[in-house]
Write a structure and sequence with these properties.
This protein is mainly β and 256 residues long. The chain is 5% helix and 57% strand.
């Protein structure tokens, strides 16, 4: 019997040349084999054949401010159309997605993803102080008041986002606070003041990066694009971001 590899054997985790070892909560590396069915008309079963491969990885990262973990207490601004609701925010998720097409040819084994656009949206849970203001805006008999700037400052991320209010609800449940749930979708180009490098890079379309991980069970490295990011801010919790990456071509793997 011998010891097996644990989380404590991880010695390196870099994204874009920056060491995230003290911030990454977990990671997963995935190779998918794309297949097609080789079967003639009179065959019952046929055989699956591999036709292409793709390599992806994902990780969860703790947001830091001044080298320490940040919580919802770092939320200092949340305004919609100039009106601050920062004291009413219960939670929100900022989702950013890189739109992808593939540049690999038929003779290449691994996928070669390339960015062709960027999408983003925010889902918000908001407490109500006096009126259900946001659903009222959604109910107005026009389609102009639902477009405005959303300004966000949290965990050192300061951005102004042109948004479209695309859905709003007002919930009333026994033994619970009344809540508004609102979805905002992109309505233009973001303006960035400051912010976490990874999140800002994918938000502004600079999605390429080199990466490396030394796990104790093998060393991985490659060049990837950030395919998605989710910044989650919740009441009474640390702020975390979930990232997904799509490698360009074959990654490198060196056995331990």
């Amino acid at each position: 019997m011998s010891n097996k590899i644990t989380n404590l054997d991880v010695s390196l985790f870099t994204l874009g040349g920056v060491d995230f070892l003290e911030r990454v909560e977990g990671a997963q590396f995935d190779t998918d084999i794309l297949d097609d069915l080789c079967r003639g008309v009179a065959q019952r079963y046929g055989a699956k054949k591999g036709v292409k491969k793709e390599f992806k990885f994902s990780c969860d990262i703790l947001q830091h401010v001044s080298s320490t973990c940040a919580s919802g207490l770092s939320l200092s601004a949340f305004t919609w159309d100039g009106s601050s609701v920062v004291s009413e925010i219960e939670s929100f998720d900022l989702d950013v997605t890189t739109e992808i097409k593939f540049g690999d040819g038929a003779t290449e084994v691994f996928r070669w993803p390339q960015p062709t656009g960027t999408d983003y949206e925010i889902q918000v849970d908001k407490l109500i102080t006096s009126n259900a203001d946001w659903i009222q805006i959604a109910m107005d008999n026009n389609v102009t008041s639902i477009e405005a700037q959303l300004v966000l400052d949290v965990a050192g991320i300061d951005v102004s986002l042109p948004m479209l209010m695309s859905a709003a609800s007002h919930s009333i449940d026994g033994g619970e606070m009344q809540m508004e749930k609102v979805v905002f979708k992109k309505s233009g180009t973001p303006t960035v003041v400051t912010g976490d490098a990874l999140l800002i890079e994918i938000l502004t379309g600079d999605a390429y990066l080199a990466w490396a991980a030394e796990t104790g069970a093998g060393d991985y490295s490659g060049n990837a694009i950030m395919s998605s990011a989710k910044l989650s801010v919740k009441n009474g919790a640390l702020i975390k971001s979930a990232y997904e990456f799509f490698n360009q071509g074959a990654p490198s793997y060196v056995a331990a």
